[in-house]
């Protein structure tokens, strides 16, 4: 990842938490809804497109 890319302040923390299974996809979606994470960052973290309205509680 290039240092030129501006990420949300919580991006690295949430990415690390997701990788350790400390954070679920539904929780990441909530961070997007709260504008603490962008949809693009959600996709980087999960490897899946951001979609609203899903009830998936498993990582």
What does this structure look like?
The protein is an all-alpha fold. The protein has a domain at 11-46. Helix content is 44%, strand content 0%. It contains three helices and no strands.
What's the layout of helices and strands?
Layout: H1 11-19, H2 25-33, H3 39-46
Features:
59 residues, mainly alpha, 3 helices, globular, XkdX family protein, XkdX
Quaternary organization = single chain
Strand content: under 5%
Q: Low-confidence runs (pLDDT<50, min 5 residues)? A: none
State the total count of DSSP E strands: 0
CA-atom Rg in angstroms: 11 Å
Q: What spatial form do the alpha-carbon principal axes imply?
A: globular
The helicity comes to 40-55%
User: Structural class, from helix and strand content?
Assistant: mainly alpha
- Output mean pLDDT: 88
Topology as H/E string? HHH
Strand count, sense and barrel status of the largest sheet are: none
Number of helices: 3
Q: In angstroms, what separates the terminal alpha carbons?
A: 23 Å
Organism: Shouchella clausii (strain KSM-K16)
Pfam family, one: Phage_XkdX
Protein name: XkdX family protein
Task: Give a short summary of the structure.
With 59 residues, the protein is mostly helical.
């Amino acid at each position: 990842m290039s240092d030129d890319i501006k990420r949300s302040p919580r991006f690295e923390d949430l990415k690390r938490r997701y990788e350790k299974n400390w954070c679920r996809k539904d929780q990441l979606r909530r961070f997007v809804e709260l504008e603490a994470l962008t949809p693009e960052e959600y996709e980087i973290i999960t490897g899946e497109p951001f979609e609203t309205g899903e009830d998936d509680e498993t990582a």
